[in-house]
Design brief:
It is a single chain. The protein has about 425 residues and is an alpha/beta fold. It has a single domain (about 1-405), classed as pyruvate-formate lyase- activating enzyme (Alpha-Beta Horseshoe), CATH 3.80.30. It has helices at about 90-95, 105-110, 130-135, 140-150, 165-175, 190-195, 205-215, 235-245, 265-275, 280-285, 295-310, 335-340; strands spanning about 1-5, 25-30, 40-45, 50, 60-65, 65, 95-100, 120-125, 155-160, 180-185, 220-225, 250-255, 315-320, 360, 375, 405. It is globular.
């Protein structure tokens, strides 16, 4: 890898993480407590990423403090983004993690500008902000503080239990701005989870984190996705997962079928061939050639299976296919505030009519708190929708632009040929 300003001799390590006078690469770090992981510390020129208008994502702004993710989820849609750094989408994605060490300072600078519209910012849309690296670098508290102080709503999606560290900070932030929290739990079978999500906390630990966030006053949604054909889509698997989600206190579930982008598919198929060779032919039929999405027929079949179960467990249901066509940008934070004041679920989290997980509200602060307004959970500002919706990371995520000044020069790793196979089988 190469970044502008790659000059180790010019770096004072004791000054990290605040050397805004330098740009690009700072240093690479390996430590005994993170065996096999190399952290590449960089100084980002920008923190806020504008989601392309062509994206299916129903939100406009993201912040990603890290690139690459030590969770190492085999199915992760973001794996292909590592190739922009001339790293491979397989082992490098989990073992070569880029750390934007000055991200909090840059965030504060950008959201303090008069031109900033204070639109909701999403964290966890590309790689997890509470992956293991966060325990070393502690970037999220500064980002949360900067967003809240500027009046910018925020939404977090994570698999990381380190979120619990920041719950007091998030409660404080929610007194100033709407804060949304979602936990991603795709696999509840411990053996499968260890195989396909090798660097993640257990499902039980994540459910305990959901419970802690609920007890702190947040309405938390769980992302039950991706649902993988033949692996996690049985009635027993879905029913057990939903029962545990409900018991943890979650208010709703976002679900969706496995999505295999070209940069992800070779690595997923390698894993499948190694761990479940009997399923390879079926997956080649479901995801032939360059096809990324599961067939519509499978998604419809899955919907008929899971929707009654979600209702039976008393959870609100949101599905990947709800996201549909992206509306024209409004270009004004006032529109988001108006929707919140009406108690509406933001479009990026709910159905097209704006309905969704909305409660009677409790322990609020500001006009949306104290149960006033449908979205007023421990509310802040006019809408008070703290935790009323999930951060919008999903399979099929659009590529957010990054202006961190990183210039790739190397590519490694051997990819399997794009799979070709028979007609759909499920």
């Amino acid at each position: 890898m190469r970044w502008n300003g790659q000059q180790l001799g010019a770096v004072d390590d004791d000054a990290l993480p605040g050397m805004e006078q330098l740009s690009g690469f700072v240093r690479s770090v390996t430590t005994p407590e993170f065996a096999s992981v190399t952290f590449h510390e960089v100084l980002a020129r920008s923190a806020l990423n504008r989601v392309p208008s062509s994206s299916r994502m129903m939100f406009d702004w993201t912040i990603n403090p890290y690139r690459g993710c030590s969770h190492g989820c085999v199915y992760c849609f973001a794996r292909g983004t590592h190739e922009y750094l001339e790293l491979n989408a397989g082992e490098d994605f989990a073992n070569q993690v880029v750390v934007k060490v000055n991200i909090a300072e840059v965030t504060k600078r950008e959201v303090s500008r008069a031109s900033w519209g204070r639109e909701r910012v999403h964290l966890g849309t590309n790689t997890d902000p509470y992956q293991r690296a966060e325990g070393r670098y502690g970037l999220m508290p500064g980002i949360i503080d900067a967003l809240a102080a500027s009046g910018t709503p925020l939404a977090i999606l994570t698999k990381g239990t380190l979120l619990r560290r920041d719950l007091p900070l998030l409660v404080d932030a929610a007194r100033e701005v709407p804060v949304s929290i979602a936990m991603s739990i795709a696999v509840f079978d411990e053996r499968l989870q260890h195989s396909i999500e090798p660097g993640t906390p257990t499902a039980a630990a994540r459910l305990a984190t959901v419970r802690a966030a609920v007890e702190a006053g947040f309405r938390v949604r769980v992302f039950l996705m991706p649902i993988m054909p033949h692996l996690t889509d049985s009635m027993d698997s879905l029913d057990d997962a939903l029962a545990q989600i409900k018991a943890a206190g979650a208010s709703g579930v976002t679900w969706g079928a496995l999505h295999l982008r070209p940069g992800v598919k070779p690595w997923f198929m390698q894993w499948l061939q190694r761990e479940h060779p009997d399923l390879v032919s079926s997956y080649l039929g479901l995801y032939p050639g360059m096809t990324a999405a599961a067939p519509k027929a499978y998604r419809q079949w899955l919907g008929r299976r899971i929707r009654p179960l979600i209702r039976a467990h008393g959870l609100a249901a949101f599905e990947d296919d709800d996201y549909g066509v992206r509306p024209a940008r409004q270009g004004s934070a006032a529109n988001a505030a108006t929707g919140a004041a009406r108690g509406m679920m933001p479009l990026e989290f709910g159905a097209a009519d704006g309905t969704g997980v909305a409660g009677s509200g409790s322990a609020g602060a500001g006009a949306g708190g104290g149960g006033a307004g449908a979205a007023g959970d421990v509310g802040a500002g006019s809408g008070g929708d703290i935790g009323a919706a999930a951060a919008g990371s999903r399979t099929g995520m659009g590529r957010a632009s990054s202006r961190s000044g990183m210039t790739p020069v190397r590519k490694t790793g051997r990819l399997l040929p794009q799979p070709q196979g028979p007609s759909m089988l499920f």
